[in-house]
Amino acid sequence: GKYYSGINQPDIMYELNKIIYDSNLIIPNISFSNPEKLKLEDDKEVDSIAISLPFKGTYKDLNGFLVKLKENPKKLLVSQLSISRDFGDMLDGHLTLTAFSEGDASDSEGTFYYNNENEPVHTDNPFASFLGEDEYYDILEEEEDTEKRKVIDDLETGKVFFMGTSPEVTGNISKINKAKNGKSSIRFEYFISTNFKEERAFVVLDDRNISFKYPPEALGLWVFSYGYSPVTVGLRFQDLDGRKYNLDIARGIDWLGWKYISSSPIKDLKIYPLKLDRIYVQLEANRDEYGVFLFDGIEASYAKKGEKEEDEELPNYELYMVKPGDTLKSISKSFYGSESKYKKIAENNGIDANMDLAIGTVLVIEK
């Protein structure tokens, strides 16, 4: 039918992402209201949910998006549209859509997986594990290194969804009691068939709000492989304007078992903060590929300390702007309760301990 059989966020996200992917309109995020019941004129009750879409683009981009929205077989009603001019031909705006269901509302809170409605065109089951469901053992287990890493998201709880770039990309996401960290990991099944362009299968991380204010040295995750594969595994980021940035972390799968894979993210501070919104598995044009991966622990890597610093904690610092009448000794007394550390302040800032301080000078004060 032209309406949804139930109010389910992953279904709606799948339809919307197909439209967004094919349009030039920049939509940085998608948010949903709580499902509501509406009574129609014939006293029939239907379930509805509102979808909020901030956007940026030209009038042509907006019109193209609305045309694709109208052509989509599953109907989404435009209930509100506001537009303001940004600069040149660019528009800023906000679009509110409403989806209706013919059946009962489906609460997606208890759902951790999403199946595409499209089935792969072959008779064999493409999602059977290469080693069988009961043969989860670690092959060629990678030894731990001494790199300092912080777990950004253990993927242990919360919601993630499967999504593909076209109907030729299908799959499933579920949880499995096998993990590198914690008790469980994400089991990711995929079938990708490509024609003249690359296709991707996604783990959708929108609800997890994984953001980075500045780039770490490297970023990666744990991946369990059951067999060798030509696919690329990567992470996709989105900036505040909705622009997408891809980070390939493994071009081709050449290991079995668990392996931590990582790469150095974009270092250009001007594009931050960035939100991590997708894990992707990409297949190049004119190929068919299916398989299973386990994903666990998204981690950020930080620079290794020198041997001398191995067991030392780095100090904390505070910035101080010089005011009229300040001297190094008065600042030392203010921060440390004594004038004795004025030479330390001078050393930390590369200045002469006996010099007069210019008003407005910014000093680094070690805590």
From the structure above, extract its key features.
Jelly Rolls, mainly beta, 3 domains, Alpha-Beta Plaits, 6-stranded antiparallel β-sheet, Membrane-bound Lytic Murein Transglycosylase D, Chain A, 4 helices, 12% helix
Describe this structure in words.
This protein is mainly beta and 367 residues long. It has three domains: 9-101, Alpha-Beta Plaits; 112-302, Galactose-binding domain-like (Jelly Rolls, Sandwich); 316-366, LysM domain (Membrane-bound Lytic Murein Transglycosylase D, Chain A, Roll). It contains four helices and 19 strands. Strands 6, 8, 9, 12, 15 and 17 form a six-stranded antiparallel sheet that branches. Strands 7, 10, 11, 13, 14 and 16 form a six-stranded antiparallel sheet that branches. Strands 1, 2, 3, 4 and 5 form a five-stranded antiparallel sheet that branches. It is globular and about 80 Å long. 28% of the residues are buried. The model is unreliable at 1-5, 104-145 and 305-311 (pLDDT under 50).
Condensed summary:
This protein has three domains: 9-101, Alpha-Beta Plaits (2-Layer Sandwich); 112-302, Jelly Rolls; 316-366, Membrane-bound Lytic Murein Transglycosylase D, Chain A, CATH 3.10.350.10. The chain is built from four helices and 19 strands.
